[in-house]
Amino acid sequence: MARVLGTEGWRLGWCLFLEWARREEEQAEGDGVVAGWPRRREKTARPVASLGILGAWLQVGRGMAESTEVRKLVYLVTGGCGFLGEHVVRMLLQREPRLSELRVFDLHLGPWLEELKTGPVQVTAIQGDVTQAHEVAAAVAGAHVVIHAAGLVDVFGRASPKTIHEVNVQGTKNVIEACVQTGTRFLVYTSSMEVVGPNIKGHPFYRGNEDTPYEAVHKHPYPCSKAQAERLVLEANGREVRGGLPLVTCALRPTGIYGEGHQIMRDFYHQGLRLGGRLFRAIPASVEHGRVYVGNVAWMHVLVARELERRAALVGGQVYFCYDESPYKSYEDFNMEFLGPCGLRLVETRLLAPYWLLMLLAVLNALLQWLLRPLLLYAPLLNPYTLAVANTTFTVSTDKAQRHFGYEPLFSWEDSRTRTIRWVRAMEGSAQ
Ligand SMILES: NC(=O)c1ccc[n+]([C@@H]2O[C@H](COP(=O)([O-])OP(=O)(O)OC[C@H]3O[C@@H](n4cnc5c(N)ncnc54)[C@H](O)[C@@H]3O)[C@@H](O)[C@H]2O)c1
Ligand SMILES: CC(C)[C@@H](O)CC[C@@H](C)[C@H]1CC[C@H]2[C@@H]3[C@H](O)C=C4C[C@@H](O)CC[C@]4(C)[C@H]3CC[C@]12C
User: Fold this and answer.
1) Which parts form a coiled-coil structure per UniProt (predicted)?
2) Burial label, 10 (beta-carbon count in 10 A; 0-12, 13-18, 19+)
3) Pocket-testing residue among 154, 200, 264, ligand 2, by greatest number of atoms within 8 A of Cβ
4) pTM for the predicted model, two decimal places
5) Which residue, 16, 1, 120, is CA-closest to 61?
6) In principle, which of 58, 79, 286, 349 could form an S-S bond with 85, CB 3.0–4.6 Å?
7) What does the alpha-carbon distance between residue 409 and residue 261 come to, in Å, rounded to a whole number?
8) Residue whose CA is closest, atom 38 of ligand 1?
9) Is this prediction's ipTM beyond 0.95?
10) Which residue's C-alpha comes closest to atom 18 of ligand 2?
11) Does residue 206 have an active-site annotation?
């Protein structure tokens, strides 16, 4: 379709222009207004009208001309069937007009991909493992842009530290090397706030930005792996890829993502249902955690991927926190923005469960997980790491993405909240 508009576009534009010119001239004779501008003296009216219409036509023509060549880019999204990945895939299809092919690479392909194959963009589902270099290289070959969102997001002890490292670090190395070997020049990495903190010392990060000094000290396998992977991506910026041009990379650091498809929100909801519609507060309301809507995180990925080529010198090698207008609240209070309207309530237990008791329970959970591992996977939300993270303020306040590549949140807080509540309610229907 876009290609057809190329030649036909100019011809169609010219016909539109002539028809419009005729009508404008007729109208200008009648009501004294020329193409939206107040009519000037008779002798300038006609040139003004023609200029205005000509300008409109040129705009139409250019837009069509641009559309004739735009569908030429191949994007690859690793982890494209995950919580964030699916939103990135759908956002690209909606808001990246230059796409000719969208490759979705994931260990587990979602059935919903089939519904995407009816549009003008070729959607190629690739079942693969980022830890397998040859599978990554095959998927990357020929892509113009790679958005690397595949990762093992585990802070609940489900996967071994070795596996987390293999996926998050070695997998990222494989993506970088595939870009270099095949000549793909633009790589966006989905990093995480946890690359920064909260650190093992429980230091708060209050309204911090990308330049705020903070002692990023980690022991847990997940943040360690994200920090290593991010460093690899940023260090790869400028490396020569096949064909002799430089690789341009950047990393996006979402804070706690929420929205349609968020598994942890789903876990909280089901836990509340099991407890008779109640959730028990474990974290003081004063401990704030930054959260960001998944649609805005997806939009930031799409936008920075588009701007990487045009603003390579500025954006290449940079990190950007993902942010929007979501309010600063404790993790649990924030979740109640969505779970409350769906019938759950947060029971104040701070007097009943002091921090030391919660930490004791968390340690017992970790011990139980270790004892039961040969028999079954016991991975509750409460463990020493999640308690420590939840109990440490971590909020960002930055506009670096806006300054560097014009990012503005696509979804307001109200819209993000409404969409998430609608999703929880749909879960409610399925849970009954
Ligand atoms: N969820 C959050 O709050 C959050 C916040 C900051 C950053 N992140 C980052 O965003 C990215 C996506 O996270 P998510 O929350 O969507 O998690 P997710 O688990 O829903 O998605 C990750 C996807 O990667 C895929 N994957 C895992 N191992 C793979 C492998 N070996 N090969 C190929 N694909 C593999 C999974 O199948 C899944 O579809 C991750 O890199 C994560 O670190 C998430
Ligand atoms: C059981 C209570 C103590 C309850 O309040 C625990 C909440 C806990 C499960 C979450 C609190 C903070 C979350 C993390 C944070 O939002 C950022 C993250 C970075 C991202 O890359 C992956 C997810 C996560 C680690 C996220 C995980 C859940 C929490 C620890």
Assistant:
1) none
2) middle
3) 264
4) 0.86
5) 16
6) 79
7) 19
8) 82
9) yes
10) 256
11) no
Buried b (16+ CB within 10 A) or exposed e, 294-319: bbbbbbbbbbbbbbbeebbeebbbbb
Distance between CA atoms of 174 and 299, rounded to whole angstroms?
25
243: how many CB neighbours lie within 10 A of its CB?
A: 9
CATH code for 66-262+290-327+394-414? 3.40.50.720
Tell me how far the alpha carbon of residue 17 is from its chain's centroid: 41
Residue listed under structure tokens 């030391």:
356
Can you give the pLDDT of all 432 residues of the chain as single tens digits? 333 334 444 555 555 555 555 555 555 444 333 333 333 333 333 444 454 555 555 555 544 444 445 679 999 999 999 999 999 999 999 999 999 999 999 999 999 999 999 889 999 999 999 999 999 999 999 999 999 999 999 999 999 999 999 999 999 999 999 999 999 999 999 999 999 999 989 999 999 999 999 999 999 999 999 999 999 999 999 999 999 999 999 999 999 999 999 999 999 999 999 999 999 999 999 999 999 999 999 999 999 999 999 999 999 999 999 999 999 999 999 999 999 999 999 998 766 578 899 999 999 999 999 999 999 999 999 999 999 999 999 999 999 999 999 999 999 999 999 999 999 999 866 555
Pairing mode of beta strands 37-38, 33-34 = antiparallel
The radius of gyration of the chain from alpha carbons, rounded to an integer in Å, stands at 26
Contact 233, 189 (CB under 8 A): yes
Contact 347, 367 (CB under 8 A): no
Catalytic one among 75, 189, 206, 222? 222
What are the sequence ranges of the domains in the chain? Answer: 66-262+290-327+394-414
Could you identify the atom of ligand 1 that is nearest to the CA of residue 80?
39
Which residue's structure tokens are 């469960």? 353
Ligand 2 centroid to residue 314 C-alpha, Å = 32
Tokens standing for residue 202: 């429980």
- Counting ligands in written order, the one closest to the CA of 331 is 2
Is there a contact between 87 and 261 (Cβ–Cβ < 8 Å)? Answer: yes
Ligand number nearest to the C-alpha of 130: 1
